[in-house]
User: Fold this.
Amino acid sequence: MDALLEKLWNYVAQDKPLTLQVRLFRLMCLATAIICLFVVLPINLFEFGIPIIVNLAVIASGLFESFAIPSPAGEKIMSSCSNSF
Assistant:
């Protein structure tokens, strides 16, 4: 488990020399995904009377944020788009 977390941290924060904007975006996506899936969702599951749609929205938000961490291919596309402007 520690090796997986260390690998994820190295990918998000220290993968290669990236701009501060990309590194900050990766960290914000990771923090949002962790908060949604491991803090908000368990608390909502213990509360009664919350509609199921709220839990589904939290799950969708957490998964979206975890997949929003840019991949190296996505960074190439983003950098080529930003260079054209």
Remarks:
- Residues 2-83 form one domain.
- The helical segments are 2-13, 20-46, 52-67, 72-83.
- DSSP finds four helices and no strands in the chain.
- The mean pLDDT is 77.
